[in-house]
Amino acid sequence: MYTIFKKEINVFFDSLYGIIIFSIFFLINGLFIWIFPSSNIFQYGISSLEIFFDLVPYIFILFISSITMKIISEERSLGTLEILLSQPISYKEIILGKFLSCWFLSIFLIFLTFPYWLTIYYLSNPLGNIDNIIILNSYIGLILLVGAMNSIGIFFSSIFQNQIISFLSSCFIFYLLYEGIDMINFYDSINLIDSFIDHFTFSYHYSNFTKGIFQISSFIYFIIVMITFFYFSLVNLRIDLK
Questions:
Q1: What is the mean pLDDT of each run of 10 residues along the chain (242 residues)?
Q2: Which domain holds residue 209?
Q3: Of 70, 54, 68, 64, which is closest to residue 24 (Cα–Cα)?
């Protein structure tokens, strides 16, 4: 498993592709949070990272779809997956190693945004007048959210050999799971089913964390999503290579 994990990390950082993806992530974040008048923190009026935590899930929809779309489909198209399986390594170790590498890259990106926290801390008046508990819980929620997204993205990469189809499928499902309730409410004028659907959306559980609430049910929800799609990827890989 560690060999797979290390290989995927090295491939990402040794390629121009990885540098471009990281650069685009921080460019978009920087423009919206610090530059654009309609959304930057200085115009917001209070020392808060609420804008960042509202925006970043949408950026991760694109980022995670980009890094997971080739994680298995490329190996299959190049024929290296069969070579990999000829080594003393199990299907479970392959999927787990690839999942952990993608999750690590996402968490690494999140870690690199910690200076945002320090910046608003020192810009606040009086100094340190920020709600650190809300920010900490928001980061925990974001880490769990990207873990669930990576698990789903790897599943689609295990289904489709075409990377573009894998990318588009992941983007669609991520957006549906994150904004699904709002899309349904648009047609459901009397809100008969929104309270039920609500509990299956990413945004509902993620918003609990961004409000500073660490709910065990939301934590369990994201863990279940990760385990479920990990299992789906594992089953699909076994069936496909038989």
A1: 85 86 88 77 73 92 92 81 77 92 95 89 76 92 97 93 92 88 56 63 91 91 96 87 64
A2: 2-240
A3: 64
